[in-house]
């Protein structure tokens, strides 16, 4: 799947989105980024989505509006208009109502793993939540993600309390920045003392653990993301889990300091090095800074050590392999706008005639305006001193 075209679906007026190895969506709130990503998930995994809903005895009676309310969330049943909406994938028409129909098929293994923006809701007081813990009208992406984390903690980590750091989960070069910039030296453990497994932070020198509500906002946002990455990066020699090929991460920067964002983006490049195709949505210029830098290196003969320098990582055989893969990937950036077509700004050219591209989808626009005002005032002050 390489090109998705949408017309008049929810808040999306017109979109022609080419997908790269890493695809990034930017734009203001409520412009359709999440709708687009959920449609991508539906295109890839619709048999499994219908199976999962049926497994929990959820019946939409083949009604498209009921299915949309179940999948996208309450209130989204009318996002498709039979008269005006259109969805075309690689040149083939794929009307959304068709996905509400039941069809016979063999058992389905997911091809796309979705880490939603609402991921903080997947933990309640540090305890994972199964699919059935949510209302029927809660978005499917959140319920399915939460179910996977529940299975991971209850099954794969059932025999050991340690969640992070773990020597057999994530390479040392990826773990160490997280220890420093996200967890401040604390560890992440499973506490089962109260007959219910809950995730807590543990101080490096021992002592009393810290429960979920004591964590920083960034830690509460990041821990579900970390567990999702554990699902995608199995500890065995297998590079990917099952038949998964795609990863969606919404707003990976939420609550994080720029150094922690860099550490998180290094994990995204690790996904790329394992040949996952990754889609991100973001409101952080930091994310686009990295993509701009990687594309510049690609165009001007950059080396793996240059990539590692961007991330502040030490060069060795393992990190150079990761950096080499980053230089071989394709990057696409699309700007979603309210009441206007989605624009491809992949070149990230600050001198572009396109205002969207020059301002990188609005993410650098404010900094540029501040710089312009400061320069104007500096010139005026200099002129007044010389008068």
From TrEMBL:
The record's GO molecular-function terms, alphabetically, read: ATP binding; ATP hydrolysis activity
Which Gene3D superfamilies does this UniProt record tie to the protein? P-loop containing nucleotide triphosphate hydrolases (3.40.50.300)
Region (Disordered) residue spans? 343-362
Q: Which residues form the ATPase AAA-type core domain?
A: 173-289
Where is coiled-coil annotated? none
Protein name as it appears in the record:
ATPase AAA-type core domain-containing protein
């Amino acid at each position: 799947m390489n090109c998705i075209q949408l017309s008049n679906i929810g808040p999306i007026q017109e979109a022609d989105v080419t997908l790269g190895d890493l695809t990034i969506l930017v734009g203001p709130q409520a412009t359709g980024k999440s709708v687009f990503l959920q449609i991508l998930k539906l295109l890839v995994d619709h048999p499994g989505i219908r199976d999962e809903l049926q497994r929990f005895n959820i019946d939409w009676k083949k009604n498209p509006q009921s299915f949309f309310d179940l999948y996208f969330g309450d209130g989204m049943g009318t996002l498709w208009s039979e008269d005006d909406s259109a969805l075309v994938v690689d040149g083939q028409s794929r009307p959304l109502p068709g996905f509400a129909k039941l069809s016979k098929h063999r058992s389905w293994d997911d091809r796309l793993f979705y880490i939603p923006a609402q991921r903080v809701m997947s933990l309640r007081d540090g305890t994972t939540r199964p699919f059935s813990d949510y209302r029927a009208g809660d978005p499917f992406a959140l319920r399915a993600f939460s179910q996977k984390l529940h299975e991971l903690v209850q099954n794969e980590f059932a025999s050991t309390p340690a969640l992070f750091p773990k020597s057999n989960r994530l390479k040392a070069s990826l773990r160490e920045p997280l220890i420093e910039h996200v967890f401040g030296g604390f560890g992440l453990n499973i506490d089962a003392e109260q007959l219910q497994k809950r995730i807590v932070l543990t101080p490096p020198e021992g002592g009393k653990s810290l429960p979920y509500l004591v964590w920083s906002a960034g830690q509460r946002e990041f821990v579900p993301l970390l567990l999702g990455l554990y699902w995608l990066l199995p500890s065995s020699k297998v590079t990917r889990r099952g038949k998964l090929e795609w990863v969606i991460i919404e707003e990976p920067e939420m609550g994080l300091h720029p150094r922690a964002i860099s550490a998180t983006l290094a994990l995204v490049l690790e996904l790329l090095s394992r040949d996952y195709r990754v889609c991100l949505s973001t409101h952080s210029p930091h994310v686009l800074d990295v993509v701009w830098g990687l594309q510049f290196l690609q165009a001007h003969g950059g080396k793996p050590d240059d990539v590692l320098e961007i991330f502040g990582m030490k060069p060795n055989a393992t990190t150079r392999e990761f950096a080499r893969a980053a230089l071989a990937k394709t990057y696409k950036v699309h700007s979603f706008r309210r009441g206007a077509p989605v624009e491809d700004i992949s070149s990230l050219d600050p001198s572009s005639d396109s205002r969207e591209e020059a301002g990188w989808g609005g993410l650098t626009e404010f900094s540029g305006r501040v710089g312009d005002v400061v320069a104007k005032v500096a010139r005026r002050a200099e002129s007044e001193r010389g008068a």
